Structure formats: structure tokens, C-alpha cells
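Researcher: Next entry: LD-carboxypeptidase (Pontixanthobacter aestiaquae).
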Amino acid sequence: MTGRRQVLAGMAAAMAAGIAPVPAFGRRQTKPPRLRSGDRVGLIAPASAVSTRQIDIAQQTIGGMGLVPRLGQNVAGVDGYLAGTDAERAADINAMFVDPSIRAVFAISGGWGCARVLPLLDWDTIRANPKLLVGYSDITALHCAFAARAGFPTMHAPNAANSWQSLSWNNFWWMAFAGIRPVLGGAEDEALTGRNGRTLQGGKAQGRLIGGNLTVISTLMGTPWMPDLKGAILFLEDVAEEPYRIDRMLQQLRLAGVLEKLGGVIFGQCTRCSAPREGDRVLGFTLDEVVDHHLGPLGIPAFAGANIGHIQGQLSVPVGAVVELDAVARTIRAVEAVVA
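Model: Predicted structure:
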């Protein structure tokens, strides 16, 4: 992972090149502040209980970014399989957003539990103090709720205790530190990772990028914590779900009228989601067949195999920001800067 010296060198190069953030596209939006070397950031455990080792790794990762970690008061808590009670986990989130010395908030890990804290968050305080929220997996519940209630972008990126390989870090640095609007994904990244994407329906579309874990999103449907998806670019990923379960969740989105209102759709990685086999024979539909069945006929730009999900070296992408999807090139271009 890139260390503090590389961060400082990259920032100096960007300044020398005259690179600056670009104003928001087509709407007024409060944005989080960009990160700088030496900034203090919060570490929270909003979902499943985390180990001492995970907390240590998270602090080391944040330090390697040139940032100064501050642990939430309850990160070591345990309540059944959760990292403390709902009230304790919510209190840590609220405390990070009210503290003016904290510039961003990183989840240590996911698991399950973020949806339980949504009614307990101080949304007035969060709206008044924009800060990047960073994480993925179960953190999808927070990303969606922030998109619906907070009005500023967040970052779907590795959790602090996960591996931050160069692709994840480079994407994150350009958006969160330098305020650049990068082009994410495409053939070069596919060759680098060995994960080839495929176009389902060609074309380009611009819209607000919303998404994350499909299981979490399907459970938020019909709740006030899910943002309006009309014209949005929806991205999805999941882990350890057989194709019939992916079929069931995509069908739920279809029946809810979600898929038909989208501007574009991206299906990322579904790790350990293969269909069961009997010898050489696949039992039922493959994952690709399920995805093609639901997303191919929509008639909107769409591609599958994006480098997003429960994988090493995943893309860091800006939730709630306006992006351009190019389904033929299989890229996501940030139309607006994520930070101020």
C-alpha cells in the first residue's frame, strides 16, 4: 500500500499540475472536506463485533495512509454477534460527526448490524457536518441511508481492517485527497486484476451512483432509508449467495419497480456465488444467466464483472456522486468531485 511519503509526493504533483476539484454537476450539494496528510479520522465498528487484531490492523492501515486514527469509544464492545448494543454503535457514529477534529469516518469491518442503527442516528448533525464515510459490505446500509438523508457523497471502498491494495488505494487517493474525477475500471484494470467484464447493453448514461451489497439493498427496499433510484446508476455486488438467491433478490428489485427506473446498472463481483454442480453438469442457472435474464432486457447501459465487491484490489467508488457509465468501455467516470 502507498505510504505517507507517496501521498505527499502525489499531492505535490497534483498541485504542480494545477489539478483542482470540479464543481458539482447540475445540482447544489454539500461535500465532505478533502483529506490531507496528518488529518485525524474516526474508526467505528457499526456492525458485527471486531477482534483486537482487526482493530490493530485498521489503525495500522489508517496510519499508512498518512492519517491519524481515533477509535470510537465502543469499537471493542460485544453484544451477541454485534459490536456493542445498537445505541452504543450509533453513539460512536454520532460522536464522530459532531467532533470538528474528525475529517472522515472509516468502518473497521462489516458483517451485519448497520441497518439496526439507522433510526438512532442524529441526521441533523450528520447533514450539518459532511465527512467521508468509508467502507463496504454491510456498510451499504449506511451508504444508502446517507444518500437518502445526508445529502453528501460517501466512499464504497475497503473497510479499514481489509487489504488496501494499490488499485483500491489509488482510486481512493485521487478522489478523497486530490479531489480528482478519475475514470474507474476498464480494460486496463481488468487485465491487471485478471477479472474480465462483459457488456450487457451498450451505451453511456449519467446519474447518481447508488449501490453496494445486493442482500443489504434488497432488505432496505420499501424503507425510508433507501434513496430514490430514478435515473440512478445502480451498482451491485454480493458474497456467498447461490444463483437462485441472486435471482430472488433481483426479482424483488424488479417487482418493486426499481430496475425499470434506473439510468444504468453495473453488476460487480459475486464472490463464491457459483451454481452447484453434479460432475460437469451445472444444477440450475449459472450466475451469468441470472444476471443476463434480469439486467440484459432493461434497454439501458449495463455491464457485469466490475471490479467491485468482496475481493482484493476492489475499486473505490463514490456513492451519491454523479458519474458517467460507459457500458462498452466498462468504466465509471466521476463527473463531479467527491470532496470540497
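Model: Note for the record: DSSP finds eleven helices and 16 strands in the chain.
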